[in-house]
Amino acid sequence: MNLAADLANRRPTSAAELTDRCRAAGLVLHSPATPQDLDDTLDTLDRWERIVDAAGDHERAHLVNAMLAASTSHPRLTDHADSGWHVHYRDDDQSVGRLLSALFAMGTALHLAGRGMHRLQRCAVTECTTIFADTSRTGRQRYCSLRCANRDAVRRHRARTSSAAAR
């Protein structure tokens, strides 16, 4: 989820940048991303942002299910790169673009089902469009960062003081 949000918030502009950012996030890539992988990833991010911006839980679930159907395959256990056994929901030896599509679809489904359908959103500050996954304990995170939370608190405070002064 964090990689999807990171890539959606700051879209990669080259296959090399996509490769670097995936590896920095801890993904094991068997080959570097190609220009086609970059195009596929940008398309995937467009679909993923529709999930983020969905009007309600049912629409969000429908969009996640469509992404899962298009991107994933039957689950399998793997110990690639000797990193320990874990489950993959994709075929082996997929392109970077297909791998990211499966990863984003499955990660989003697990996050929303496990934490709550409302816990993937954009920042509550109107002029900020940053996407974030709410991993807070209470599930009530509204802002992408402390900076935006403070900015909004100052704005609300100033609005209250100016309306009190006007009375």
Instruction: Report Rg.
Output: 19 Å
| General shape | elongated
Secondary-structure element string: HHHHEEHEEH
**Computed structural class:** mainly alpha
Rounded mean pLDDT is 93
Summarize this structure briefly:
The chain is mainly alpha-helical. The chain has six helices and four strands; from the N terminus they run ααααββαββα. The strands form two sheets. It has a two-stranded antiparallel sheet. It has a two-stranded antiparallel ribbon with strand order 3-4.
Write structural notes for this entry:
This protein has 167 residues and is mostly helical. Helices cover 55% and strands 7% of the residues. Helix 3 (35-52) runs antiparallel to helix 4 (57-71) and helix 3 runs parallel beside helix 5 (96-115). The longest helix is centred in the C-terminal third of the chain and has 21 residues, at 146-166. The radius of gyration is 19 Å and the shape is elongated. The relative contact order is 0.13. The mean pLDDT is 93.
Q: What is the fold's blueprint, element by element?
A:
Elements: H1 2-9, H2 15-24, H3 35-52, H4 57-71, E1 76-78, E2 86-88, H5 96-115, E3 120-122, E4 131-133, H6 146-166
Antiparallel strand pairs: 1-2, 3-4
Helix pairs in contact: 3-4, 3-5, 4-5
Can you tag this structure with a few keywords?
single chain; 167 residues; mainly alpha; two-stranded antiparallel sheet; 6 helices; 4 strands; 55% helix
